[in-house]
Specification:
The complex is a heterotrimer of chains A (658), B (365) and C (152). Chain A has 658 residues and is an alpha+beta fold. Chain A is built from 20 helices and ten strands. Chain A starts with a helix and ends in a 23-residue tail after the last helix. The C terminus of chain A is likely disordered. The longest helix of chain B is centred in the first third of the chain and has 29 residues. The chains are: A alpha+beta (658), B mainly alpha (365), C alpha+beta (152). The interface between B and C is small, with 8 and 11 residues. Chain C: This is Cytochrome c-type biogenesis protein CcmE.
Chain lengths: 658, 365, 152
């Protein structure tokens, strides 16, 4: 009964969304506040319907209702509760339902923000948003119905074991909040185009959405990367897999958007470009959904493979991207040009940031889609992997990172490059000293690592430098400076922290060059050494759990002869699906990790084992956490900001000493 | 019936959500225009910052000037008063209400009618009970498997599961399951015979040395085990010992009750062996047309002789001959294969392994 | 600077970055793209030793051999031919004889492929896409249904 009501609620949501699409647009055209007032009311009703449908499906999962096909295919009565719940979105149909649920939720948030969003903008935005909802609801109801019934069966087929993992339980929601958050900025951009009006108020409304979506997307990508690192047992953390790229592209475009909205909010400039970026970012999010959901790529991540659905999503993709670009071409010339600025200025630096990010995004786009296009056109199959991206993406990102601290220090409207450089002398000096010291200590080792760590250090110090110089100058007492620093806008702190997070990640990535690995065939008592870490195979034990059985290799880890503790790596067999998986054993030592992955167990009791030591590897994901935290902190800043055009003159002597 | 009442109530609530804002006479009343409000608070913010000392006076002045400029512009652009009165507005409102009243219920019922299952009762209609039984069967297997995963030493479980596997075509699993059953329940003639049979099926009808050992053990435990004796006879036949096979088959026939289910099969075997020129079909349990096999085998042989082939293909040819009972040809094929693959060490190994499996010992170099 | 000059500066900078990016992409396309070949393609296309590519096909039953310290060799076959693959490392969980596999590496000599990565299918019903296509082209593999029947 509940399942049927849930299904019907979804159908109702479709009708309501259609109304939410048509009536407010009409109201905005005819200037009728009553018709525009339909938008928020129906947005709330849509949320209620979709929320109810989602709840109904979740209940079916929790109660193991094996008369619902989706539950049978992805659940099992012995599965732990958390995976019963995460199983709801651990499959194609349920994940699309989660997608529209978030969409409706965000729509409802826009609907209730009455006093900050102008009526007409709100009506147009909710109408555009309803159009997206209609498309995806149709897709769910027609091509991927999660409520399909079957004759009840006794037991379900269990969730793909790779997905039975806490990381994967929260990865899709994080990613979707990111993707769908950009749908709101997209809707606002289209609404601005429809209305032919865009200003700082618009940027002010859109900024929290961009920030929030960006923070969640950052978390989602980091979570996915960490999951691939420990679950796939290959020891890598980024594979330039098309599915990973599918989430990286909106992230790059979203990062650019985040920065250009700042320019727009503070200086009323870069309007057309910001609109274009908002459209691009969501288009790339849709593209990501298409790539993952359609099955055009077959990779570790895509758990739904169905070309028929693919063509449906392709239709949605074409309609929305094509429609929004047409709208852009038609209406963008109407937008009034904004404030002026000199090339060397904060705005100029942000333009450079946008330029590099957009170009880097384009190279990822080419690397991801070229193989698909080539195969369609010529039938030739190629693969584009890490070497391609190292050669194209890195040369674009590294200069951007080098310029980042300068841009952050430049004044609005017109800046002075030399003066800025002077303020960064200390950060630069320390970074260079760190690089040289590391080069000396690790002479003979890889050069990349010290250079990368130097860059990361520069990023972190440069970000902190901004806070320091804004609150402390020569002669200021520390207490005063501290009070001043604490009084700085939270968005300033957020910016500094997020940029420092980039530095942290860069250090983690650079340090991977120092990683060591070893491969061996071992019997009980044998030892294997990677760098200064050594493991001994203590014993092999079979173990049986509710839904799998496993062979565990128990290892003793020691560092320079000192024993650090036990590590377990296992081969699991998930019984219901008869599917084997490898669980890597990971021991965190400081910020580095000892990582062991079990190979085949031979009949003579010997095992294959791969051992890695990865120094500072945790920094890669910690950096992402710091970035997201910076974003969140900036999000809590509800102040209104305006770029003070001429910064107070800082005496050149006041270079802060650290 | 109850379900329809619930669905109707939901529809009514959804339609009301749209009609309610349309019923109000003058939209939402807004105290402030967010556009100008934004710049006003921006100005206030600058002043607060200046007082706190976060902005220098010169900065504050410049910022204020800019914000004030924008405020003026925003004031000029105030939304040209909303119109919500008069005849056209009323007509628009009626049209929108009609739209909501029709689109929402019609669309929802159409879509739900096409894809939903309002009459779903939870019980299985009789017509598809069988389908359910089949699904339940798979589920039952899953349950037994799960049970065995946690109690791998339950030999009874393995013994129950093994024939099920065979029926499902999971022959290798069946072999393993019988093996486990023997390990935990101990050897017993019937069990050993079944084990051997599963191995024969797994090898496409060839009685391997391993399977033969199982059958021999079975017969040693229980001389009357018909299945084991039958396969031993076949083993002899495949080994080329036709006379031995014949006597084994006749033995089996003479000690069996006349109405035993295997009697016709044994008779058939005997008559086949009796007629030397027969096509020697009836190899593995999965019956394939004998003509087909013969044609396939001769085709393969011709191709291999003419253009050579991989070790795997040669091995397949050897096995095919053995299954057809043409041991001399199998041995000849082995010889040819050794010549053809003289330089391929791995290939030779494959051939030797196959020769050993087929017990083509006489053909060894 | 006038508005026009500023715009020109901007366009110039954008053009420069885009030109550099385009150059990099074109250069990388020549250098880092890896082609996909089936065993039959190696002869047909006359792939020269030293070439890096992805090899896909079925793991030949009975061909897997393990040597010292995780040295592994197996054969990858399609309907027409097969090639020996040597690999040092751990095989993926779903590596099976008779199942689809994709290996990336370098052709050492016409009969031996030295792999540095081996990917197997990711679940019970999945065949690496390239492999499935290549086999289908040769009329060998017609979907799972038939394959599982043959396995019997």
């Amino acid at each position: 009964m509940l399942v049927e009501a849930g299904h019907f609620a979804l159908a109702l949501a479709l009708g309501l969304s259609l109304i939410q699409f048509i009536v407010p647009l009409w109201g905005a055209r005819t200037n009728d506040p009553v018709l525009m007032g339909v938008a928020p009311a129906s947005a709330l009703a849509v949320l209620a319907c979709i929320g109810f449908a989602f709840l109904a499906l979740t209940t079916a999962y929790i109660t193991s209702d094996f008369s619902v096909l989706n539950v049978v295919e992805n659940s099992h009565s012995t599965k732990p509760l958390i995976y019963k719940i995460s199983g709801v979105w651990g499959n194609h149909e349920g994940s699309m339902l989660l997608w529209v649920l978030i969409l409706a939720l965000f729509g409802a948030v826009v609907a209730v923000s009455k006093n900050t969003v102008p009526v007409r903008l709100q009506a147009n935005t909710l109408a555009v948003q309803a159009a997206i909802t209609v498309a995806f609801l149709l897709f769910i109801l027609i091509a991927s119905n999660p409520f399909t019934r079957i004759t009840p069966v006794g037991e379900g087929q269990d969730l793909n074991p790779l997905l039975q993992d806490p990381g994967l339980a929260i990865h899709p929601p994080l990613l979707y909040i990111g993707y769908v958050g950009f749908s709101i900025t997209f809707a606002f951009a289209c609404a601005a185009l429809i209305d032919g009006r865009i200003d700082a108020v618009w940027a002010r409304i859109v900024r929290p959405w961009t920030l929030g979506a960006w923070s969640f997307l950052t978390l989602g990508i980091a979570m996915g990367s960490y999951w691939a690192y420990y679950e796939l047992g290959w020891g890598g953390w980024w594979f330039w897999d098309p599915v990973e790229n599918a989430s990286l592209m909106p992230w790059l475009a979203g990062t650019a958007l985040l920065h250009s909205t700042v320019v727009m909010e503070k200086r009323d400039a870069l309007k057309v470009w910001t609109i274009l970026l908002a459209i691009l970012t969501f288009s790339l999010s849709l593209l990501g959904t298409f790539l993952v959901r359609s099955g055009v790529l077959t990779s570790v991540h895509s758990f739904a493979v169905d070309p028929a659905r693919g063509s449906f999503i392709l239709g949605i993709l074409v309609a929305f991207i094509g429609g929004s670009f047409a709208l852009f071409a038609w209406r963008a010339p109407l937008l009034r040009q904004g404030g002026l600025f000199a090339p060397v200025s904060r705005e100029g630096a942000l333009v450079v940031n946008n330029l590099f990010l957009a170009t880097a995004c384009a190279t990822v786009f080419i690397g991801t889609l070229y193989p698909l296009a080539l195969e369609v056109l010529t039938g030739e199959k190629i693969s584009v992997g890490a070497p391609f991206f190292n050669l194209t993406f890195l040369p674009l990102i590294i200069p951007l990172l080098l310029l980042l601290p300068f841009g952050q220090t430049l004044a609005w409207k017109r800046g002075n490059f030399l003066g800025t450089a002077q303020r960064l002398y200390a950060a630069m000096g320390l970074a260079i000293v760190a690089t040289l010291a590391l080069l000396a200590v690790t002479a003979g080792g890889p050069v990349v690592a010290p250079l990368g760590i130097g860059l990361g250090t520069f990023l972190i110090l440069g970000s902190l430098n901004e806070i320091v110089t804004r609150s402390w100058s020569k002669g200021t007492r520390l207490a005063v400076a501290w009070r001043k620093a604490a009084g700085l806008p939270r968005s300033a702190w957020g910016t500094a922290i997020a940029h420092a997070g980039v530095g942290v990640t860069v250090i983690g990535i650079a340090a991977t060059a120092w990683g060591v690995e070893a491969l061996g065939t071992m019997k009980v008592g044998d030892r294997l050494k990677a760098g200064s870490y050594e493991i001994r195979l203590e014993r092999l034990v079979p173990r049986v759990e509710a839904n799998y059985r496993e062979d565990v290799a128990l290892l003793m880890v020691s560092h320079n002869g000192r024993e650090l503790g036990n590590l377990e790596t296992m081969k699991r067999l998930y019984v219901t699906r008869n599917m084997p998986t490898t669980e890597a054993g990971i021991m965190t030592v400081g910020l580095g990790q000892v990582y062991a992955s079990l190979g085949e167990i031979q009949s003579d009791g010997s095992i294959g084992l791969r051992l890695y030591y990865k120094p500072l590897v945790l920094l890669i994901w910690l950096g992402a956490l710091v970035m997201a935290a910076g974003g969140a902190l900036s999000l809590t800043d509800r102040r209104l900001r305006i770029g003070a055009p001429a910064r107070a003159k800082v005496p050149p002597s006041s270079v802060p000493a650290e | 019936m109850v379900i329809w009442i619930i669905l109707l109530t939901m529809t009514a609530a959804a339609v009301m959500a749209v009609l309610w804002p349309l019923s109000r006479h003058h939209g939402q009343n807004r105290q402030v225009d967010p556009n100008t409000q934004f710049y006003r608070s921006q100005l206030a913010e600058i002043e607060r910052d200046q007082e706190k000392g976060a902005l220098l006076p010169s900065e504050a002045e410049a910022a204020k000037a800019e914000a004030a400029r924008r405020l003026l512009r925003a004031n000029g652009q105030q939304d040209a008063g909303f119109v919500a009165v008069g005849e056209p507005a009323l007509r628009r409102r009626r049209a929108a209400s009609a739209l909501a009243l029709s689109v929402v219920p019609i669309l929802a019922i159409a879509i739900y009618g096409a894809y939903g299952s309002p009459h779903f009762q939870g019980g299985a209609p009789i017509a598809i009970k069988q389908e359910a039984a089949k699904l339940d069967f798979a589920a039952a297997v899953g349950q037994i498997e799960a049970h065995l995963a946690s109690n791998p030493e339950d030999g009874r479980g393995w013994e129950v599961l093994a024939p099920v596997y065979l029926r499902m075509g999971r022959v290798d699993d069946a072999v393993k399951a019988y093996g486990s059953a023997i390990r935990y329940l101990g050897p017993e003639a019937g069990r050993l015979a079944n084990y051997g049979e599963a191995m024969v099926l797994a090898k496409d009808g060839v009685v391997s040395a391993e399977a033969q050992a199982a059958f021999e053990q079975a017969v040693a435990l229980d001389k009357s085990s018909a299945k084991a004796r039958f396969y031993l006879a076949r083993a002899a036949e495949q080994d080329g010992q036709i006379e031995k096979a014949k006597s084994a088959y006749s033995d089996l026939l003479s000690t069996s009750p006349a109405d035993a289910p295997w009697v016709p099969v044994v008779r058939e075997q005997l008559s086949r062996l009796g007629a030397p020129q027969s096509d020697a079909a009836e190899a593995g349990a999965p019956r394939i047309g004998s003509d087909d096999i013969a044609r396939m085998v001769s085709g393969l042989a011709a191709r291999l002789e003419a253009q050579g082939g991989s070790a795997e293909e040669w091995a397949r040819l050897m096995r095919s001959y053995a299954v057809l009972g043409q041991r001399d040809k199998a041995a000849a094929a082995a010889k040819q294969a050794r010549q053809a693959l003289a330089k391929d060490e791995a290939g030779l190994k494959t051939i030797e392994m196959m020769a050993r499996e087929l017990k083509l010992t006489d053909a060894e170099p | 600077m006038t508005r026009k000059q500023r715009r020109l500066t901007l366009i110039g900078a954008a053009g420069a970055v885009l030109a550099i990016a385009l150059g990099l992409v074109l250069y990388a396309m020549n250098d880092t793209i890896v082609f996909f070949n089936s065993p039959a393609d190696i002869q047909a296309k006359n792939v020269r030793p030293g070439t890096r590519f992805r090899l896909g096909g079925l793991v030949k039953p009975g061909s897997l051999q393990r040597g010292e310290s995780q040295q592994i060799s197996f054969e990858v076959m399609d309907a027409e031919s097969s090639i020996v693959v040597r690999y040092r490392g751990l095989l993926p969980d779903l590596f099976r004889e008779g199942q689809g596999v994709v290996a990336e590496g370098v052709l050492e000599n016409p009969g031996v492929f030295r792999a540095d990565t081996v990917l197997a299918k990711h679940d019970e019903t999945y065949m690496p896409r390239e492999v499935a296509d290549a086999l289908r082209r040769q009329g060998h593999w017609q979907g799972e249904g038939k394959a599982s029947q043959q396995a019997k």
